[in-house]
Specification:
There is one protein chain. The protein is about 60% helix and about 5% strand. By secondary structure, it is mainly α. It has one domain: dinb family like domain (Four Helix Bundle (Hemerythrin (Met), subunit A)). It has a two-stranded antiparallel ribbon. The protein is elongated, with a radius of gyration of 18 Å. It starts with a helix and ends in a 19-residue tail after the last helix.
C-alpha cells in the first residue's frame, strides 16, 4: 500500500497546479468559443468548467469530508442532470472559472488540515465496492487531467471548425471526427 502522507502531498501539489493550467488554456476565449460544442452530445468549454466547479464541492471535496468525518455513505450526485438543470451552457464563463478557482482553494485548505492516516478509511458504495479517501484524492487528480484533455480536444476541434475549409487536420487527427482535415 502507498504511504498516505506521500499520496496526500503529491495530490495537493497537483491539485494546486490545475487552476493555473486551466486558466492558461482558457484565457482569452471569446463568448462564442466558450459555448461551442465540438460535436453533437459533447460539452462546450463553459459546460466542462461548470462541471469542474460543481464536482469540486459536491463530489470530491464532499466525499473526502465524509471519509475524514467518519461518515457511512456518500450523497448521490448526477452531473449529467446538473448540466441541464443548472443551465451550464448559458453560464457566465469567466465567473464560473473564478468560482472553480475559489472552490479549489477551499479544497486545498481542507486537505492541508487533513491527517493523512484518516484518508485510509473507506465508505461502502451502492454497488458494494468501497472507496477510501486515498482512492478519492487520486481519482480527483485523474478527473482534473481527463477534463484538461477534454478541454484541449474541444478547443482543437472548435479552432479547426472556425477556420474551415482551411485544413487544420494537417496537424494530425482532430478529435471528434476528422471534418476539418
Amino acid at each position: 500500500m502507498h504511504d498516505a502522507a506521500a499520496v496526500l502531498a503529491a495530490v495537493r501539489e497537483d491539485l494546486a497546479r490545475f487552476p493555473e493550467a486551466l486558466t492558461a488554456l482558457l484565457g482569452g476565449l471569446d463568448a462564442e468559443t466558450w459555448r461551442t460544442r465540438p460535436a453533437a452530445g459533447e460539452w462546450a468549454p463553459v459546460e466542462i468548467v461548470c462541471h469542474l466547479r460543481d464536482e469540486e464541492a459536491e463530489d470530491f471535496a464532499a466525499r473526502v469530508r465524509v471519509i475524514l468525518d467518519g461518515g457511512a455513505g456518500f450523497a448521490p450526485i448526477d452531473p449529467e442532470r446538473w448540466a441541464v438543470e443548472r443551465g451550464y451552457l448559458d453560464a457566465d464563463a469567466p465567473a464560473v472559472l473564478a468560482a472553480f478557482c475559489e472552490r479549489r482553494r477551499a479544497s486545498l485548505a481542507m486537505l492541508a488540515g487533513s491527517a493523512p492516516e484518516r484518508l485510509a478509511a473507506a465508505v461502502a458504495r451502492p454497488d458494494g465496492s468501497r472507496l477510501s479517501g486515498l482512492d478519492l484524492i487520486v481519482a480527483w487528480v485523474a478527473h482534473d487531467r481527463l477534463h484538461l484533455a477534454q478541454l484541449a480536444a474541444t478547443l482543437a476541434r472548435v479552432w479547426a471548425g472556425r477556420w474551415a475549409p482551411l485544413r487544420a487536420g494537417y496537424a494530425g487527427p482532430l478529435p471528434y471526427g476528422d471534418r476539418a482535415s
